[in-house]
Specification:
- The protein is mainly alpha-helical and 386 residues long.
- It has one domain.
- It is 73% helix and 2% strand.
- The chain has 13 helices and four strands.
- The chain has a two-stranded antiparallel ribbon. The protein has a two-stranded antiparallel ribbon with strand order 2-3.
- Helix 2 runs parallel beside helix 7 and helix 7 packs across helix 8.
- The radius of gyration is 23 Å and the shape is globular.
- It starts with a helix and ends with a helix.
C-alpha cells in the first residue's frame, strides 16, 4: 500500500503540472473571448458574439459537471449514473429565483405567482417557493439541496456497502424517479415545460450583452476554482485513501480507514460542484425542465469523462468541451445519425483509448521524449569518435 501511495504521488505531480497548464490556457482563452465581445464592435472580424459566448458558457458548465463526476469516479471508483440529478436541482433553484424576478411582467400579470401556477389555478405561492426572491438564498439552495440529497443518499448507500454496478443502478433509479416527479404539474415546478421566460438577474436584463459576459466569466472562474479545489483534495492524504478505496476497498477497510466516511465526503463535494454548474447553466440557456434529470444525460456526462481521460480532472474538462462542441456541430450537420456517432465514439474510446484523450496525448509525448533521449547518447558517441 505504501508503494502504491508513493507511485501515486509522483504520477499525481505530473498530472497536476499538466492540468495547471491546461486550466491556465482555458482561463486565458476564455478571458480573451470575453474581451473580444466587450471591446470590438459587431461586424469586426475580432468580435465574439453574445450568442457564441453564451454557447461557450454552457460548455463551461458542462465541464464543471464533468469535473465533479471525475472526482468521484476517477479517484474513488464511484460510478454515478444519476449525477444529473444534482445538476438539475441546482438549476431549478436558480430557475425559481429567476421566475420570482418576473413579477407582474408575465403573461397573466400576477405579481406573486408564476404564469404556470396561474394557468393551473393555484391560489397562493407554495411554501417551498418562499425566499427565492432573494439571490443569496437561491444560491444557498442551489448548493444545499444537492448536497443534502447526496449526503442522505450516500449515507444510506455507503453504510450498506453498496458498490459497483449496484450503486450505479440505484443512482440511475434516483434521477429517473426525480425526473418523473418533476414532470407532474402538482409538484409546483412547471411540469414538463419547466421554468423559462426569465427577465432579470440581480436587476439586470438576463439577455443583455453585459450579463452574458458576466455569466460566462463567472462560469470560467468557477471551473478554475473548482478544479484546484478537486486537485487539492486528491493530492492530500484523503486523495490517496480514495484511490486506495478505488483499487482495493476491502484492504483499505482492513487497514482501519472508515471507507464510508471518505466516500461520503467526496460524494457530497461532487454534488455541490454539480449543483453550482446547474445554477450557472440555467440563466445562460434560459430554461430548466425535467429533461435535465434524464438518465441519458447522466450517461452522456460519463462519456465526457471517459473521452477526456478518467482520473485526471483536467481530462474530464477537455472531454466535456470537445464532445459538447462536437454535439453542437454534428447535430446540425448530421442530425439523424449524431446519437449513433456518440455511441460509436464511446465504444472506440473504451476499446482503443482507455485513458482518453489525455492518455493518448501522454503516450505520444512520452514516446517522443524517449526517442529524443535515445538519439542524444548516439549523437554524443559520434562526436567523441571524431
Amino acid at each position: 500500500m505504501k508503494n502504491k501511495f508513493n507511485w501515486l504521488s509522483s504520477g499525481g505531480h505530473q498530472t497536476s503540472v499538466a492540468g495547471t497548464y491546461v486550466m491556465l490556457i482555458i482561463l486565458g482563452v476564455g478571458l480573451i473571448l470575453a474581451l473580444c465581445n466587450l471591446i470590438f464592435a459587431e461586424g469586426s472580424a475580432l468580435h465574439v458574439s453574445s450568442y457564441t459566448l453564451a454557447l461557450f458558457g454552457k460548455y463551461l458548465c458542462f465541464a464543471l459537471l464533468a469535473l465533479s463526476l471525475d472526482l468521484i469516479w476517477g479517484y474513488a471508483g464511484i460510478l454515478s449514473l444519476g449525477h444529473s440529478a444534482f445538476f438539475a436541482l441546482g438549476g431549478y433553484a436558480m430557475g425559481m429565483y429567476l421566475m420570482r424576478q418576473i413579477g407582474d411582467r408575465g403573461v397573466y400579470g400576477n405579481p406573486d405567482l408564476p404564469d404556470f401556477m396561474v394557468f393551473l389555478n393555484w391560489q397562493e405561492l407554495p411554501w417551498f417557493w418562499m425566499g427565492f426572491d432573494n439571490f443569496g438564498f437561491a444560491m444557498i439552495m442551489a448548493l444545499a439541496v444537492p448536497g443534502l440529497l447526496a449526503f442522505l443518499f450516500g449515507w444510506l448507500a455507503f453504510r450498506s456497502r453498496v458498490t459497483g454496478v449496484y450503486f450505479s443502478i440505484i443512482t440511475q433509479a434516483m434521477t429517473f424517479a426525480l425526473m418523473n416527479a418533476f414532470f407532474r404539474n402538482e409538484m409546483g415546478f412547471g411540469g414538463n415545460n419547466g421554468l423559462t421566460d426569465f427577465k432579470e438577474i440581480l436587476g439586470f436584463d438576463v439577455q443583455s450583452d453585459g450579463v452574458t459576459v458576466a455569466l460566462f466569466v463567472a462560469s470560467l472562474i468557477s471551473l478554475f476554482a473548482a478544479y484546484f479545489l478537486c486537485r487539492w483534495i486528491v493530492n492530500a492524504k484523503a486523495g490517496n485513501v480514495l484511490v486506495a478505496v478505488r483499487d482495493a476497498e476491502s484492504r483499505t477497510r482492513f487497514l482501519g480507514y472508515r471507507v464510508e466516511h471518505f466516500k461520503l465526503f467526496v460524494f457530497v463535494v461532487a454534488a455541490l460542484i454539480a449543483g453550482l454548474s446547474g445554477a450557472l447553466y440555467v440563466p445562460q440557456v434560459g430554461i430548466i425542465n425535467p429533461g435535465e434529470f434524464s438518465p441519458l444525460f447522466s450517461i452522456e456526462v460519463v462519456i465526457w469523462v471517459a473521452v477526456g481521460g478518467r482520473g485526471t480532472l483536467y481530462g474530464a474538462v477537455i472531454g466535456a468541451l470537445v464532445v459538447s462542441y462536437a454535439k453542437t456541430y454534428f447535430t446540425g450537420a448530421f442530425a439523424e445519425v449524431w446519437l449513433f456517432m456518440l455511441g460509436g465514439l464511446f465504444v472506440v474510446v473504451t476499446l482503443y483509448m482507455p485513458k482518453g484523450i489525455v492518455g493518448v496525448a501522454g503516450q505520444w509525448i512520452g514516446a517522443r521524449t524517449n526517442r529524443r533521449a535515445q538519439q542524444q547518447p548516439q549523437a554524443a558517441v559520434g562526436d567523441s569518435d571524431e
